[in-house]
Amino acid sequence: MITFDALGQQQPLKEQLVGTWTLLSWEQKKGNGTKVERYGTAPKGIAFFDAGGRYIITVMRSDRAKYASNALWQGTPEENKETADGTITYFGTYSIIDADSSVTVHVEGSSFPNWNGTDQKRYVAIAEDQLTLTVRLPAGDVVDVIWKRAN
Length: 151
Fold this sequence. Notes:
9 strands, Lipocalin, 9% helix, globular
């Protein structure tokens, strides 16, 4: 008789997801085959998923210019636009759907206000210390966000 232990049973998806992840890449593949790196070629970001079902994700361009005023609340309209266009942050609760290897994030707050109060689905693939969250957009585009487990 073969036991599950002998087969090296894999941890449940939630247990694999829990932890801290640092961003490697963010890429959108359009239906026509073109690729968009909306947050640049070297984006910065972090994702936390805790065991209690809470998360926070933040992604930003690493090449944003510093504000000339050096003051947090005194950016020019252009500087503020670059910040808004080059950053996405959202947090809330999440639940795992094992049947299709996905996570549904309930957005409690986001730097993009239209996401507040919404549920969004991300397909999950975890291989060793790498996490890929995939978003399938209604227009046929696919966004792959690739993370590495933080040490």
